[in-house]
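pinned: reference chain
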Amino acid sequence: MSTQTSEYKRITTKAVLAMKKNGEKLAMLTAYDYTTARLLDESGIDIILVGDSVANVVQGLETTVPVTLDEMIYHTKIVRRAVKRAMLVADMPFMSYQVDIKEAVRNCGRMLKESGAEAVKMEGGKRIVPLIEQLVDIGIPVMGHLGLTPQSIYKFGTYEVRAKDSSEAKQLVEDAKILDRAGVFAIVLEKIPESLGAKVSKSITAATIGIGAGVGCDGQVLVTNDMLGMNEQFHPRFVRKYANLSETMRNAFKSYISDVKAAKFPSKKESY
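pinned: its structure tokens
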């Protein structure tokens, strides 16, 4: 079984589906700026998501609900400049695709045309199938999102694990199959039981990308700032911290301040 993606010069929807078929796990992380996106792309990430989590990570908002379409286009356009190999997916923000199909298609078209994204991601099951079918028909790739859907946080009232009871789990499997038939190339499964994540992955041809959904998914995604340890207030069970940049950055800032105060920076070598 292959574990490398070096043979793919560019990651496309075709490559994503081939990787699932071949049993090769997909790695996805978020980016909202040029520098992070460049480092991710150079490191060999498969998919970069410009998530509406920009609301929490960059804008300091409590939920993802306030983010606008123009803001998502702005951040995706910046990320696009850095990405050469990875597939670039952009979140469609709350109320950019829920009103009616005509407006939603126009907004998704704007995202691709103005930002350079190669696919859009949207939350929801059966309700958005007519939109997905139309988008796929006109050539706009769609990534779905089931389980915990942050744009519906006011409806749920909590960020707890979804689909723990049999009825919700059954509906999630059905929604995944419906989205699959509608033509999505991938589905994010967020914060659901591990066994359910594996079941869904085996039930559809689209790739599943888990976040708190177990190792049985076809790939995994995390918010980059979380896995780098930049958010000390956020400690969900599904986040593995690969670094502690908050401490590294704070120490660097303190050292800089100390050097400036003590007239140790700049030195003669650092001056003209």
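why pinned: The chain has a mean pLDDT of 95. Residues 1 and 22 are 7 Å apart (CA to CA).
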